[in-house]
Protein: Acetate--CoA ligase
Amino acid sequence: MSDRIHTLSGYFYEYQKSVTEPENFWARIADSFHWKKRWDKVVKWNFEEPNVQWFVNAKLNITENIFEKNLFAYGDRTAIIWEPSEPGEDSRSISYQELYEQVCQFANVLLSKGIQKGDRVIIYMPMIPEAAVAMLACARIGAIHSIVFAGFSATALADRINDCQAKAILTTDGNFRGNKKIAVKALVDEALEKSSVESVIVYKRTGQDIQMQEGRDFWWHEVTEGVSTSNKAETMDSEDPLFILYTSGSTGKPKGVVHTTGGYMVYTKYSFENVFQYSPGDVYWCTADIGWITGHSYIVYGPLLAGATTLMFEGVPTYPDPGRFWAVIDKHQVNQFYTAPTAIRALQAYGTEPLEPYKLDSLKVLGSVGEPINEEAWKWYYTHVGKSHCPIVDTWWQTETGGILVSPIAGITPTKPAFATLPLPGIQLAILDPEGNELTGNSVEGNLCVKFPWPSMIRTTWGDHERCKQTYFSTYKGMYFTGDGVKRDHDGYYRILGRVDDVINVSGHRMGTAEVENAINEHPLVIESAVVGYPHEIKGQGIYAYVICDTTNRTEDNLISEIKDMVAKIIGPIAKPDKLQIVPGLPKTRSGKIMRRILRKVAEGDTSNLGDTSTLLDPEVVNQIIAGKK
Ligand code: 6R9
Structure:
């Protein structure tokens, strides 16, 4: 039985069911999975401790739901298409049967290294199919994987290894980035100086020189050689941890978000199939890195549970030229394409010329994730990439939510530029004012919370349950607090306004930084912008805008006043930036998120302690911004 929603009325019907009879609703969805033992109760929960359990006492293995359950039906279907960084190198195509054998084989390797159920394994690998094999092999034996984005520094890696007391690391010799080879193993060596790690398994990708420590380091191709490709899956409790994923919060130290097995499985598959309206045979491509939650839920687990063909891309959007995404879409006849606004804006800056050689006629659905997508980028994406016939699913969710919570259902529920629109079935949202009152009805704005559990939600933060409670469950009693601001418009559609710590209060008027940015971005010469608040004597907070724009043939001063006037015109004089600085770049994390904390410090004139900048893509840009500040 398929749980696909096919009509708008079907969506409303399912949504209603999920609210009035949540246990029956989720039991029906979960019944299509393979459980070694069925649950005693669908959900037990309280948001005070918090303690949330889904499919209580059920037993399963998530990899059996990807493989054993389906191999008979579609073992030779392509599971993963891999597109390498270098366009001249061959792409790879791995069937479900082949992937299954590789996962079982590698699971046996992990067992032979003494890794057991519950042990933590760090995966520090670039975008190659073996990274997915590594994840699934951990899941097969019940080891808890924690993927660290392969672009993170040795220090960041060491912090994570130590926090979760990892027993093994799975990595590569190096990584390709454009025409450069990047060291990966060397960073592992640096991170391992003081650590609990007993074994390191290294997949040879670039062939660069590395050091191998006798007794600790092993080559992937050597340890897998001759190893059996059959493996009996470990029996997992529904609430056994599946993985830890570290994410940064508003405070310094990253926290290890813990996801468990049964609920995560049910929700990622359900949300994947519905949001993207995936049909068997489609080629689906999500450009995220597996080091982020999007890569976990919507490159690996969701798509593979749904029997999809998922494309993994090793490269970057601008190598060897800014037409690469479009070339890959045509080459593999991609049907669903899921990327981030930052990538869209970066490509938009090259104009439409790089798109011209490509047809893009296989595309059916476009997706966006990671940050609010501004109207201008939305329209560009819709018109030039989707050729005005592909719905855009603007998917709002978080590392902590495990899966998409608010999004259009492609082609079925309406879209609206810059709106994530409506909650998926099972997701009961609430908008709260700062005093904790729920704002009901439409045309309201406040803090986004969720008042009922959903299967893929965060269970704890690794080693520090109190932190989980404080961060997400203490601001508003009985609610999961997302940290995002939201507006529900007159039609009842949700628009995410950005983190509430990014809200600027100018003379008592609250304004989302994203709202001001959208207005700035309307200027034809603006490429990207970031807005922060800074202390202002009279207004409380002033607006400081950092803007990347095309200054050819224009004087800066003239352009600055033109952009400011434009914002005043679009939102109102209250939104006019007090300060506007033209900058060569913005400080971004490797996942493309702007580090506003740094921009706020610079705006405040406090550059003595910028905090941790190790996760920045290009730390140098911070110095350029400081130098350019008037
Ligand atoms: C999946 C992911 C979560 C934060 C989230 C919000 C922002 C993500 C968004 C969006 C507006 C969207 N965010 N998707 N804002 N519209 N469609 O990105 O997880 O890295 O944990 O970030 O990203 O602010 O709170 P994560």
The two ends are 63 Å apart (CA to CA). The pocket of 6R9 is lined by residues 247, 292-294, 368-372, 394-399, 420, 482-484, 496, 498-499 (CB under 6 Å).
